[in-house]
Amino acid sequence: MGNRSSPRAWQSYISGSAAQRNAAIVSARALACELRLAALRHLLPKQSTRGKMSTKTRDRGRFSLNFTPKVDA
């Protein structure tokens, strides 16, 4: 029975690291999007970008809240 439980623990550890890798990819993608928005902010007038930024950050906050339980589980 002890031998059977240890591979399961390893499997859960591997899946957990994969979830962390996915979270890192998502955060990197969000960072790239933020850099793109920062570049756009220099080109466009400030008022229009401010409205877009608020919606973008709100969406990212909601997404991260939905994503964190998957990483924990």
List keywords for this structure.
73 residues, rod-shaped, mainly alpha
Short description:
The protein is mainly α and 73 residues long. Helix content is 95%, strand content 0%.
Descriptive overview:
The protein has 73 residues and is an all-alpha fold. It has one domain (2-72). It has helices at residues 2-43, 46-72. Residues 48-73 are annotated as: Disordered.
Give the overall shape, derived from the CA principal axes: rod-shaped
Order of helices and strands: HH
Taking the sheet with the most strands, its summary is: none
Write down the overall mean pLDDT.
68
Task: Output the radius of gyration.
Answer: 19 Å
Number of domains: 1
N- to C-terminal distance: 24 Å
By secondary-structure content and strand pairing, the structural class works out as mainly alpha
Helix content: over 70%
By DSSP, the count of extended strands is 0
